[in-house]
Amino acid sequence: MRDRVGALGEIAAGTLQRIVREILSRRPGGHLVESEIDRVEVHLRFALRGAGADLGTISDDLTSRLERFVDDAIQRAAAFRPGHAFCHRCGGAACEHSEPPSARHVLVGYAPTGTPRWEDFAQVCLEMRHPEVDRLYEDPPAFVTLVDDAATLRSRLLGAFEAPEYELLGQVRAGFFPVRAREGEGRGVLAVTFQAAGACGRSGRSCFGLNILGKMPGGEPLDLLWDRSRDVPWSRAVRWAQAALATAGGGPAGRGGAAGRREEIERRVEGILRGLARRLERERRGRARRTSHAEERHRSGERPTRKALDDIRGARAEEILADERSGTLVVPGERGRIHFFTTDGKLVSSVRYSRDAIERKRKLGVWRDARRSEAEAFLRLLRGSPVPGSRGDGPRI
Ligand SMILES: [Zn+2]
């Protein structure tokens, strides 16, 4: 009896693994997660008798759960995949050539022997004499998108080094996205390369997906953007492009055989990439407008900055908080005034918060109590010298 149950269990286990592999090979973008999915979690529930007990119903329910699991993984991988490019020389995306050297670098093509070439995005715009190039250095920086077709990207790559299993169909280079930076990370901007790529699935059919290349100013993977703020500036545009690419491989083959078919696909993909660039720009404009509204509201109120000195005089060491994200000390003043200082005593900015907002930030751990010794040293430093003028580039709220 025991053996029989065990044997049936093995059949079921093998079948489950085969189902997942089959779903992965059929899903557009499945190639992005295939190597990363090493376990599957689904809640299993099925009827033994009655209306839902027929095998078709049970199978539909089970496969739809497994499909949902795979789709979630693809969605996450597509939008937040740690940004590695495919390296033709090493035949994968795990070598040292596959990663941009900094948050400002974008992929500019391939070296003849197949390694990805990266360049600073502002430098790229400078070389092509882009009209917005000066504004890329402003704060907030300008936002520029560049669409590259497949032929340009592989123009320098020698045929012998071109890996057949991976096909780059075009890309959008976009920057700069302003991001919250921590102290020591420099100006918080990043440039991102969005690549449309095709890969051969298990079934031999091509799947298309979007790969996102970039890294955070501190060198961490882009996932951190999601973990830090739940706010990824390209998420809606990317979701749209991912869905559009999923259908780009379908349709009847055009005239002219394989070459004609390829041309047809590249033309479709280029249209999608232009749509992606437009959406990225629209999303960015919307954000800039919302930010400037917030700044206007801040300016129109009574500027609490002048009161900083008075508030410092009245502050007690145990009231001082620390903002982990920006590395500043937070000094609560009267009437909801909050002053942000660097640890060496420079006033970064002053903002008014409601009592609720202050409480929320403490609860969420955005602000914690400053260490007593740190707070006392800070107050001694400030009371011994006048409060310097505002630098005006304080933590974004
Ligand atoms: Zn390599």
Structure in words:
The chain has 397 residues and is an alpha+beta fold. The protein has 3 domains: 2-80, no CATH class; 96-297, no CATH class; 304-383, no CATH class. The protein is 40% helix and 18% strand. It contains 11 helices and 11 strands. The chain has helices at residues 2-26, 30-33, 55-80, 121-127, 150-153, 223-229, 235-248, 257-300, 308-314, 355-363, 372-383; strands spanning 105-110, 116-120, 144-149, 166-178, 189-200, 206-213, 321-323, 328-332, 337-341, 347-352, 367-369. It has a 5-stranded antiparallel beta sheet with strand order 10-9-8-7-11. A 4-stranded antiparallel beta sheet has the order 3-4-5-6. A two-stranded antiparallel sheet has the order 1-2. α1 (2-26) crosses α3 and α7 (235-248) runs antiparallel to α8 (257-300). The radius of gyration is 27 Å and the shape is globular. The protein starts with a helix and ends in a 14-residue tail after the last helix. Zinc ion binds at residues 87, 89-90, 95, 97-98, 115. The site of zinc ion (ZN) has 7 residues, from loops.
Q: Name the ligand types.
A: zinc ion
Mean pLDDT score:
78
| Rg computed from alpha carbons, rounded to a whole number of angstroms | 27 Å
Strand composition percent: 15-25%
